[in-house]
């Protein structure tokens, strides 16, 4: 895969007229490319005042395109009607673009504001010079510079040229507005930027990109990770009308990373022909080392793993001594299988490789990683690779991986034509970077008053690191941050252990990742403790967490806490904030007056945000239960777009319900058993709460994550509500299996 | 084969078994209709065939020969269908991928049941998946477009 790219004449000609078919994105000059004011890579103000703001993070439903430009425009004092939002290509000059880890505002809130502030300061400096007044007496609003004492105004367009000749302020000199002046950030009902395009079918997702001369590829990939093609019938596939080429994909070698999966690609003039061609390949597979992997046996292996000591990553007091003198012990095991992302848009990527350059269009969460990967794959410098980011039809972590983009780049090079690699739904289900499979064992020691004197937690999860190094088979102290080591506990004796869980498939990030099963187990177990003690679950939660306080590493009993890349000074482990979301959500739900209702409560800290959920279930003659109401409270610190945060609370809660009810893919002889929404189920309209009551705690604390934190507590809240309704404790996901629904 | 698509008659020369979805997307270049599952399990590809909602991913194009097909692009000339307006107003979409199919399914429902109950909405929309979980807003938007009062839930 190294060496110069050989160009065919056809490929070269094919590159002429590039981009003509891609007219949906606004045709404006990129920031910094034309005359006008370009104080920052994300902001450009043209001579007529038209302001272009680049959205450098990927839009996958979380609302970043409706939020990030608004924050920059607010800081700038721009009129949103004069703002054009353009999606940034993948380029390090834009800063971190990996749209993952609920990090867009958490990590870049200040930096994004500074982009707007730099432009504002330059416009003000130019106007102040013209007015001969001190810049400090001026402000901006609605695309005007205003001299506050005299109320004189100048339109941005009137001062752009002069401003563009001024020096860009040094980072240290940039002054942010008082937060109280951020008017749109205070707006509770901001529009969805792409709303009109979405409802008219003009919004551009990955597969909607068309290039002149483009072919479509569908790939038959090995059913088991590590498998390869033994033989296949190229002639039969080639005989399908419309099929143009059959291409053998490179065989990946461990560690898997984001290498293409191997197999055989069928390239055709349209999607249908490629699918029919693939069906005709009649491949015999050599299934490789994972052919003996079976989920049922692996479940037992994980449970055995948590029944034996693991590596201790959290240790406070003396757990063994506390259990030895306990008046009562409570113990439970929980199992959560691999989960498939099942985003509505199957993976897809378009590549054109010509003239020593590669151009990619993809619904990707991580365009800079794609750029590096494609450059490496093709053996060309990164600056000859362009990654255009389309809208994502859902991501949830799946589109953080470059495998599908690499496939497209490889095939465009091999065929000498622009290629769209189209994954089918079956491909998407069978060839996932699934969420880790997990088993946990929780034990608590109680004294004769019911006080929890010791807490013992073991977790066996298939660590994502194994996908990258091919070796890692036991969770590290870093892995346990997600709901095990950052859990505020009042108990004076605490031990948490990571237990072995070797992976036999590709594992990767999935919305809220390990928090899903840790929140499910901890949230269920606290409810079990409440029933074992005969105390109210809400009071039990508050007892287990303990009084409001921030916890140091020593308090937690851990050597280190990655804390999602945040310092503990800025984002401490705050028991008070966790208590507060519990208090708020139970107050909203009328918890104290719940007699006759079946309510379940759970709470969780993740991505340095705090979320609590109450779910109310009622009996249903056919489906055992339905959810009539759900309440969710988040403390995510400072929030930029309240409306989209409410939407994330609704959607994240539903995904948590979906995970708990239906989540799980299984493997037989190394191959995924499920293939489509028939057996890889997700929540439908009937499964979701009739009413979702969302609540954001007003805060000026630094921004926390929002996209992922609503999901983790939902599973335990549902299981606890079902216990309240049926008296049956469900400790294994998917809950639908035990409920037979 | 002749298909009247969004009011315009088009002639297509393709395998008659090719699913209507791929004719719409790959041959006619209308990309608002989405591929989600290929087996009529998710509803992302919903279009109207002579006014009735069909899953275009499992509808062979021969079934549309001589018939009228409406896609999201043709639901209204300018995005002014009451459902489109309600969808924007209630900020229903998150990622947006399934929403064309959701709207086309809802439009077919309202065409025959202008004032649907919650149960009727649930039944009609049961085959349309939304992984972002916008279901409560979808239900509210359908009711808003229909002029049916919404208590944020109902039974």
Helix fraction of chain B, binned, reads 25-40%
- Largest β sheet strand count, sense and barrel closure of chain B: 5 strands, mixed
In the CATH hierarchy, the third-tier topology of the largest domain in chain B is known as Ubiquitin-like (UB roll)
CATH class of the largest domain in chain B: Alpha Beta
**Class by alpha and beta content of chain A:** alpha+beta
- For the report, how would you describe the main beta sheet of chain A? 7 strands, mixed
Question: What does this protein structure show overall?
Answer:
With 741 residues, chain A is of the alpha+beta class. Chain A has 3 domains: 157 residues, 2-Layer Sandwich (Aldehyde Oxidoreductase, domain 4), CATH 3.30.365.10; 153 residues, Aldehyde oxidase/xanthine dehydrogenase, molybdopterin binding domain (Aldehyde Oxidoreductase, domain 4, 2-Layer Sandwich); 338 residues, Aldehyde Oxidoreductase, domain 4, CATH 3.30.365. Chain A has a 7-stranded mixed beta sheet with strand order 10-11-8-18-15-16-17, sandwiched between helices. Chain A has a 5-stranded mixed beta sheet with strand order 13-21-20-19-14, with helices on both faces. In chain A, a hairpin with a 2-residue loop joins strand 24 and strand 25. The longest helix of chain A is centred in the N-terminal third of the chain and has 28 residues. The N terminus of chain A is likely disordered. With 155 residues, chain B is of the alpha+beta class. Chain B has 2 domains: 72 residues, Beta-grasp domain (Ubiquitin-like (UB roll), Roll), CATH 3.10.20; 65 residues, [2Fe-2S]-binding domain (DNA polymerase, domain 1), CATH 1.10.150.120. In chain B, strands 2-1-5-3-4 form a 5-stranded mixed beta sheet, with helices on one face. In chain B, helix 2 packs across helix 5. The radius of gyration of chain B is 15 Å and the shape is globular. The model of chain B has no long low-confidence stretch (mean pLDDT 96).
């Amino acid at each position: 895969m190294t060496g110069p790219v050989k160009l065919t004449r056809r490929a070269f000609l094919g590159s002429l007229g590039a981009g003509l078919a891609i007219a949906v994105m606004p045709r404006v000059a990129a920031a910094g490319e034309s005359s006008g004011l370009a104080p920052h890579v994300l902001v450009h103000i043209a001579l007529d005042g038209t302001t272009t703001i680049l959205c450098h993070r990927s839009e996958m439903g979380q609302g970043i395109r409706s939020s990030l430009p608004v924050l920059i425009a607010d800081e700038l004092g721009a009129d949103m009607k004069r703002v054009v939002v353009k999606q940034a290509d993948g380029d390090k000059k834009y800063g971190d673009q990996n749209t993952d880890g609920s990090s867009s505002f958490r990590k870049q809130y200040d930096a994004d504001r500074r982009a707007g502030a730099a432009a504002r300061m330059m416009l003000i400096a130019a106007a102040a010079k013209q007015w001969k007044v001190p810049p400090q007496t001026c402000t901006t609003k609605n695309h005007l510079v205003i001299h506050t004492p005299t109320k004189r105004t100048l339109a941005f367009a009137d001062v752009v040229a002069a401003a563009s000749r001024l020096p860009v302020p040094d980072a240290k000199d940039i002054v942010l507005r008082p937060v109280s002046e951020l008017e749109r950030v205070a707006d509770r009902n901001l529009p969805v930027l792409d709303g009109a395009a979405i409802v008219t079918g003009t919004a551009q997702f990955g597969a909607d990109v068309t290039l002149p001369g483009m072919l479509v590829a569908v790939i038959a990939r090995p059913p088991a990770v590590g498998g390869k093609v033994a033989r296949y019938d190229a002639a039969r596939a080639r005989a399908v009308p419309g099929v143009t080429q059959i291409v053998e994909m490179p065989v990946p070698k461990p560690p898997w990373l984001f290498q293409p999966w191997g197999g055989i690609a069928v390239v055709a003039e349209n999607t249908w022909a490629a699918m029919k061609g693939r069906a005709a390949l009649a491949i015999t597979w050599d299934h490789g080392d994972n052919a003996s992997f079976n989920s049922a046996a692996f479940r037992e292996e994980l449970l055995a793993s948590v029944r034996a000591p693991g590596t201790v990553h959290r240790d406070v007091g003396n757990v063994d001594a506390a259990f030895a003198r306990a008046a009562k012990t409570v113990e439970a095991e929980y199992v959560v299988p691999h989960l498939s992302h099942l985003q509505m848009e199957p993976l897809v990527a378009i590549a054109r490789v010509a003239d020593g350059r590669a151009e990619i269009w993809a619904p990707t969460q991580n365009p800079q990683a794609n750029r590096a990967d494609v450059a490496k794959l093709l053996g060309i410098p990164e600056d000859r690779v362009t990654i255009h980011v389309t809208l994502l039809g859902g991501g949830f972590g799946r589109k953080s991986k470059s495998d599908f983009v690499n496939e497209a780049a490889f095939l465009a090079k091999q065929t000498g034509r622009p290629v769209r690699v189209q994954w089918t739904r079956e491909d998407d289900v069978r060839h996932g970077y699934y969420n880790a499979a997990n088993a946990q064992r929780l034990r608590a020691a109680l004294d004769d008053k019911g006080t929890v004197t010791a807490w013992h937690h073991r977790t066996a999860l298939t660590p994502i690191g194994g996908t990258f190094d091919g070796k890692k088979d036991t969770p590290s102290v870093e892995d346990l941050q997600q709901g095990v080591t950052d859990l505020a506990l009042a108990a004076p004796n605490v031990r948490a252990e990571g237990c072995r869980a070797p992976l036999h498939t590709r594992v990767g990030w999935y919305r809220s990742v390990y928090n899903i099963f840790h929140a499910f187990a901890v949230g269920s177990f606290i409810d079990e403790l409440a029933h074992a003690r005969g105390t109210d679950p809400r009071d039990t939660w508050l007892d287990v967490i303990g009084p409001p306080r921030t916890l140091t590493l020593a308090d937690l009993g851990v050597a280190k806490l990655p804390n999602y890349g945040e310092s503990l000074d800025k984002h401490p482990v705050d028991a008070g904030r966790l208590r507060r979301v519990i208090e708020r959500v139970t107050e909203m739900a009328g918890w104290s007056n719940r007699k006759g209702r079946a309510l379940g409560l759970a709470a969780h800290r993740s991505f340095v945000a705090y979320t609590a959920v109450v779910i109310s279930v009622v009996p249903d003659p056919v489906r055992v239960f339905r959810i009539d109401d759900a309440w969710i409270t988040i403390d995510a610190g400072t929030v930029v777009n309240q409306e989209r945060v409410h939407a994330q609370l609704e959607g994240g809660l539903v995904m948590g319900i979906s995970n708990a009810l239906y989540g799980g893919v299984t493997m037989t002889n190394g191959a995924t058993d499920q293939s489509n929404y028939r057996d890889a189920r997700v929540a439908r309209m009937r499964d979701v709460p009739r009413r979702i009551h969302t609540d954001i705690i007003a805060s000026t604390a630094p921004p926390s994550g929002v996209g992922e934190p609503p999901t983790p507590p939902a599973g335990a809240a549902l299981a606890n509500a079902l216990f309240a309704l049926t008296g049956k404790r469900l400790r294994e996901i998917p809950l639908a299996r035990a409920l037979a629904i | 084969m002749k298909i009247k698509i969004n009011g315009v008659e088009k002639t297509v020369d393709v395998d008659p078994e090719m699913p209507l979805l791929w004719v719409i997307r790959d041959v006619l270049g209308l990309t608002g209709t989405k591929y989600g599952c290929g087996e009529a399990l998710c509803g992302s590809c919903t279009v109207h065939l002579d006014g009735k909602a069909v899953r275009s991913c499992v509808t062979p194009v021969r079934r549309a020969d001589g018939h009228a097909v409406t896609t999201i692009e043709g639901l209204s000339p300018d995005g002014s269908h009451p459902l489109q307006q309600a969808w924007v107003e209630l900020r229903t979409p998150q990622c947006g991928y399934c929403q064309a199919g959701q709207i086309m399914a809802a439009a077919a429902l309202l065409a025959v049941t202008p004032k649907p109950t919650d149960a009727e909405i649930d039944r009609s929309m049961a085959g349309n998946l939304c992984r972002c979980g916008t279901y409560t807003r979808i239900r509210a938007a359908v009711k808003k477009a229909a002029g049916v009062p919404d208590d944020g839930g109902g039974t």
